[in-house]
Predict the 3D structure of the following.
Amino acid sequence: MFFGSVEKPPRLSSFDLEVPDNLIADKPTKARENSKLMVLNRKDMSIEHKKFKDIVSYFKKGEVLVLNNTKVYPARLYAKKDKSDAQVEVFLLRELANNLWEAMVKPARKVRIGNKLILSDEITCDVIDNTVSGGRVLRFDHDEQSLYNFIDNHGLCPLPPYIKRDPVPSDKKRYQTVYASERGSVAAPTAGMHFSEQLIEDIKKVGVKTANITLHIGLGTFKPILVEDLTRHNMDSEYYYVPPETATLINEAKSKRKKVTVVGTSAVRTLETVVVSGFQITAKSGWTDKFIYPPYDFKMTDKLITNFHQPQSTLMMLVSAFANKDFVMDAYSEAIKKKYRFYSYGDAMLII
């Protein structure tokens, strides 16, 4: 008996696009809300060109705005190996347990189990294991607060690899959302970086409620996909938390048929992870490796705010699943023609 064909996911190569180097933003706009905003309407397949501060007009009373409140910490540090003058770059990826961290080190071939890394006269760590991804497990001999203070004071902002300049002090503030509160990310939820405190207040005045989720973004967000068949790609696991008050706000909005606008692909993946039945979510914490690509039936997201992402990235694929893939690719081509700024410090897109 024939039940119809199942739509196959597109191939990796179908997401290829050449972005000119001069459109890759290496610094933010002077004012957050002055970024460009491209508005994609899925109903009539139209495109509008706005400023991000114009986004207020796309909200209605009773709707919910979902924000990822993760906070980027200055994860890039430098150390001396043992008592030599050999310098080692230490990129702290995540805290595994009290005093235990997973990190990437450069040059990796010269950092072995048993080495001691000296970050300062007070802060040192021992290399105690290797990771399957080529990193190291480090054990610090200091209380958590002392280490956090050292990281905050001496660490450099973990700018994405496509930003070729060195970090500057202002990156610690600008490579961050204004509502960041839960430290744990080594990459910013960049769609949220366009919001100023005032813009959020303006949206609230419309009658929109804000709801926070947390997803700590890891280095895997920049990991290239190496297989044509998307079903064979494995995402890195990332920690998330959906608090009870957020679940209540979203579930009430859905029950009243009010729209939920989600800021960023990280927040979308989190909500889609905690769907329990129909159009309801549950308060929950855990680890997610959810990979969303076309075709996909979104349960929680009615409108999406996002940036212009790297071609062939998992982020671009999620956006292509939310809107028609060909529509999204046409929008990216339009953005290149209109000189939109791409990637983390670039301009924004609203899909309605």
Confidence is low (pLDDT under 50) at residues 1-5. Residues 325-337 form the longest helix (13 residues). The first strand starts at residue 36 and ends at 41. The chain has seven helices and 19 strands.
